[in-house]
Amino acid sequence: MRRFVIGQAKNLIDQTRRHHKSLRLLSLLAASDSAPVLSSPRLFSSSSDMSGSGSDSSSSSLPVTLDSLNPKVLKCEYAVRGEIVNIAQKLQEDLKINKDAYPFDEIIYCNIGNPQSLGQQPITFFREVLALCSHTALLNESATHGLFSSDSIDRAWKILDQIPGKATGAYSHSQGIKGLRDAIAAGIEARDGFPADPNDIFMTDGASPGVHMMMQLLISSEKDGILCPIPQYPLYSASIALHGGSLVPYYLDEASGWGLEISELKKQLEDARSKGITVRALAVINPGNPTGQVLAEENQREIVDFCKKEGLVLLADEVYQENVYVPDKKFHSFKKVARSMGYGEKDICLVSFQSISKGYYGECGKRGGYMEVTGFTSDVRAQIYKLASVNLCSNISGQILASLVMSPPKPGDDSYDSYIAEKEGILSSLAKRAKTLEEALNKLEGVTCNRAEGAMYLFPCINLPQKAIAAAEAAKTAPDAFYCKRLLNATGIVVVPGSGFRQVPGTWHFRCTILPQEEKIPAIVNRLTEFHKNFMDEFRN
Amino acid sequence: MRRFVIGQAKNLIDQTRRHHKSLRLLSLLAASDSAPVLSSPRLFSSSSDMSGSGSDSSSSSLPVTLDSLNPKVLKCEYAVRGEIVNIAQKLQEDLKINKDAYPFDEIIYCNIGNPQSLGQQPITFFREVLALCSHTALLNESATHGLFSSDSIDRAWKILDQIPGKATGAYSHSQGIKGLRDAIAAGIEARDGFPADPNDIFMTDGASPGVHMMMQLLISSEKDGILCPIPQYPLYSASIALHGGSLVPYYLDEASGWGLEISELKKQLEDARSKGITVRALAVINPGNPTGQVLAEENQREIVDFCKKEGLVLLADEVYQENVYVPDKKFHSFKKVARSMGYGEKDICLVSFQSISKGYYGECGKRGGYMEVTGFTSDVRAQIYKLASVNLCSNISGQILASLVMSPPKPGDDSYDSYIAEKEGILSSLAKRAKTLEEALNKLEGVTCNRAEGAMYLFPCINLPQKAIAAAEAAKTAPDAFYCKRLLNATGIVVVPGSGFRQVPGTWHFRCTILPQEEKIPAIVNRLTEFHKNFMDEFRN
Prior knowledge:
The structure is a homodimer.
Chain A: H1 2-15, H2 22-31, H3 71-75, H4 83-97, E1 108-109, H5 124-134, H6 144-147, H7 150-161, H8 178-192, E2 201-204, H9 208-218, E3 224-230, H10 234-242, E4 246-251, H11 262-274, E5 278-285, H12 297-310, E6 313-317, H13 334-340, E7 350-355, E8 369-374, H14 378-390, H15 396-405, H16 416-442, E9 447-448, E10 457-458, E11 461-462, H17 466-474, H18 479-491, E12 493-494, E13 496-497, E14 510-513, H19 521-539
Parallel strand pairs in A: 1-12, 3-4, 3-5, 5-6, 6-7
Antiparallel strand pairs in A: 2-8, 7-8, 9-11, 10-14, 13-14
């Protein structure tokens, strides 16, 4: 990694001298190879700094070396919090001390779907209930009625009544508190119009641990494959790598708005089988991440039939189910689609992942979510239960929030009007931001960008000039990473290179969230547009 | 598992006819093998029911079968939430409906260190801060000052000021919020008298995910071994099994109060090496779980020297650091011991695990904790950081609580007196309960029990009569599991068989928490004593 930082710094020195203010960054990057010379001496001693000067590998006789680590860990990549984010964090630290040293005032994190970090406010009702459940003594104070909505107080009592001893500080059942799972199952039923069983719900600390659990269950060796969309959310490639399986790619068709073709699934499945890989599951992300498409119901039916016919578990990442921005598309859960086709418990193995981190709620830091596990035999489910038990239970605050997002205030409730206003304010603003950013991206030279029908991202394709590709090669970095680092350096905007999500070889993309607050979007568009023009002027063939 | 339930039911029918009320349990257990005949038809459809009637494995053509699962998952065992707890949960459900059907009124869960589930109240100051951080609008209301202590308000502001945008709903840095890690590092320094670096802290959802992360890092195959105490907390055996490594046992000496002998470590290390196993780490649980011993400082020095000499990572499970009940013992962190020996960053790889679930706080459901990682090279630490990043971050409520338990109110703070009263009330009561239960156990025929110097458990040795062992064999169950099931059946008390923790072959134990509220202890002692007498009368040779 040390080589990367040196190479990157030298590359930047060679190529961006005309940006006077960039020199600060260059010295900052170069300094990481020698003694820190900056005003912030700790800048490079963070453990997230891969070239850190803290405990130096060269001078150590310690027993643990890279060579001795689990090679699956070494193989794993997670670009959403990778190299560019590390650079951004250091820039942000240095910005505090050296305000005038950069051509921007702040770092804007568009690398990750983390709405509240960019100013989105939490839904008041959810936080009222959470506070009351955190400090239950409040419920016995009359002053509380002046501070909280009446339905938040009612809901807190209802939740506490479902917890043995009202103990929100106790480990729960390994799948989560039964009463909260009842609320989630009722919410799924209301959404789908088909029954949901609280015993099918496994509550998790966000969706990620659920995905890991299923990968751990299904993958024994590299002979076990999981069909994943390309581009994909890197949780999938990371968790398949950590569990030692094979990622079997299927390519989404960018030209048709990231279309998911059954013929492509078949082709890739057959190809994997011909290599001796047993494909265990198909992962589908709907709405798509990083691609933002919303699947048509007819397409979902074909996918269900494909899984049934081929004996695949359908892993349905449905964490963006509330994030649909276009009138011509609607979210349908795979469970609803399967049940509407007449397929029940004994026909198809289906796991649906949901998270409190996304939607209009965006409660990323609370780490809540669940997976609805249907179609598994009781002995297999007992193994899932055991895996859940080894980590005891997911956190109760996250469990409470997961129950709330699946059973929000209803018409007539004290909070209902303000809840709806907050929810619709967030979703309509996200739709506007998605549209504005998409249009701006499509105006850039050599850039095409599908619309974000849903989710929280745009994933534009950049037709990079040969000169830029050659410069990236010289800097030993992927061309889209080269572009993204230059973007960060010039604007403070953090995006993730398409190579972190995988993409059709020879194409280059980046993922950019639509999450900066609405009033900041025009400035972001201006900075992006100016940067892109300068970049193209520098590298145009 | 179906066979187990049938076998157990038949066994119980054969052997406990004279307990009239037990017949209810027998029919309940027997019913699980055919159509439910109980008043609660859902009793056996829970997914945690291994003989569930929900989706039946025999009638299925579903693609996922036990044979096709990851064998590491199948191999993993976690007795703390295993078979006996499943039976107890069903009994508890049935008790609600059939109050008079059992010889007890309630199920008392002594299987797991879950204090608040048994009535322990949370520390008020911690919950005040948590509520204010959950619903930050409260901080702007004047009525809040009448409801909260002034230092909880100050602390909430201080915490919010450390979170970018005061966004407690945002993903944090992968290691946890920097300001909270500062507070934890300061708490470690105050505890140890040696410096601690916030960049060494990785905040986790309880201690378990930290242990998993280290196992994932260190284990590549079954040729990688981890030295673990026997008896051990089953998180270790489970996570080593899940990551495909080898558990290298070292036996604690029950006769000397669960002494940890360096000669035993050496013997087992050499034995493992002779089998081609590369031993990567030594896990030490101090205070001990399930064994409750507190290591002497001199013993800890020997352990540190052993790890240094043999090139082992020292995995120090120090989650019970606040739970010491005897005046002649004191907790010393391994980091303090190592530093006091003059060993620094470059001398020894040391990971210390801490959790908010234990101590006097017992905030199990909040899932907070951290590991302090010292002595690893920067490139290895970058891999740990990557593993943390794949799950984004631990939950912020747990992070906040972890910072609070390491920096509680100080003399002069508004909450200080009530905080100290609550803390000391809990710890002194736990000491009393430990003593009472230990004395009661030592009075039982054929039972010897070391004192609980610390932690939350007693681990008595039961000298089971041959007739009982033969009956257990006939029932195809381990003798201590047989005893524990009979105990549950007769008293409603849930304990965990020693076989779930491993033990010297031919010895039998169970683990019982000291956590039931003080006023319940006499009744528990009576029930336990009466049961044991009846059991011995039935099986005495």
